[in-house]
Amino acid sequence: MAGLYLSNLTLSHFRSHKRAVIEVDARPVAIHGNNGAGKTNILEAVSLLSPGRGLRRASAEDMTRRPEALGWKITALLHGPLGVSEIEVVSEKGAARQVRIDGKPAPQTALGRVARVLWLIPSMDRLWIEGAEGRRRFLDRLTLSFLPDHAEISLAYEKAMRERNRLLKDMVREPSWYAALEARMAETGVAIHHNRLYALRALTEAQNAAETTFPAATLTLECDMPDDVETMRAALSDGRMRDLSAGRTLVGPHRADLYGEYATKGVAARDCSTGEQKALLVSLILANARALAADFGAPPLLLLDEVAAHLDAERRAALYDEIAALGAQAWMTGTEDGLFTAMGIRAQALLVTETDGVSVVSHGDL
């Protein structure tokens, strides 16, 4: 199986990095350094090599280095099943970012055709105990990793729903204003629903086929909506009076929720201990990666921010063994290089330090 890895990553005026040139091989990358040194900023840069807003969901303006605010640039040399691609992601003075692949302008969705990127960050630790919006976002990132066009479909649905909700809030009752919007919402909404179900099936199959020390999660999509376009369109039309009273659309994939359960215990993920919830998340990311390795032809790039610090030594070693067996280039962060010693020569190390507000990256050994 051909690998997927970065051999060069260059950051210019990105976050705390005035200029950083990182040259690595296909092995996992262990990034260590003090809190605030700029480790997660490197992971965020890699996350922008995939469609979407990146692991922090930040605006392009927020990612520019201060106080210069000149804009920023990320360049990467990506090796994958389709060959070697040179990727540039640029934002000029806070403007929306622009993508170039092999020197040619490309839409963000094109990134999903040359690379797949998954991440696990500390803010996701509360996935099961917070609101449904975060779980939908998690599910859509998972779905997008399999189906790059899912992003465009989701954007089309959101745009049509915003326009319909505006009509509802303005108490517009004329049916002709709604017909085209509801037809678009029905088509894209059903596609979103089917895409999510496809991704969950792929994830379930990957979990069932794996031998892993991490607990499997049973995932269920809870969504009270029709699964064919014509019935969905009729549901939107029939529900206008109810939606007028609410001032918003009350049926559709935007109302879905993701239910997780610790499979062997039969316990809802939200009722599990903090450690069990973390282990379930790690398990899902690894299952997602295994499924993609079969679907895409190579395991994805994995971004694991501070994940080692929240696992005991046994599970930490198990995680490293699974990453190595998968053959993924995982970019991992931690405050101490000792968190990664179990990787040994299977990984390469980067030390990130900070001086006068500027992050500096240097190579080292574990």
Structure explained in plain terms:
This protein has 366 residues and is of the alpha/beta class. The protein has 2 domains: 1-126 and 294-366, Rossmann fold (3-Layer(aba) Sandwich); 129-271, RecF/RecN/SMC, N-terminal domain (Glutathione S-transferase Yfyf (Class Pi), Chain A, domain 2), CATH 1.20.1050.90. It contains 9 helices and 15 strands. It has helices at 39-47, 111-114, 132-146, 150-169, 176-209, 229-238, 240-246, 274-296, 313-326; strands spanning 5-14, 17-23, 29-32, 71-80, 83-92, 98-101, 104-106, 117-120, 217-222, 257-262, 267-268, 301-304, 330-334, 348-355, 358-364. The strands form 3 sheets. A 6-stranded antiparallel sheet has the order 2-1-4-5-6-7, covered by helices on one side. A 6-stranded mixed sheet has the order 8-12-13-3-14-15, with helices on both faces. A 3-stranded antiparallel sheet has the order 9-10-11. β6 and β7 form a beta hairpin. α3 (132-146) crosses α5 (176-209) and α5 (176-209) crosses α8 (274-296). The longest helix is centred in the middle third of the chain and has 34 residues, at 176-209. It is globular and about 65 Å long. It starts with a strand and ends with a strand. The relative contact order is 0.18.
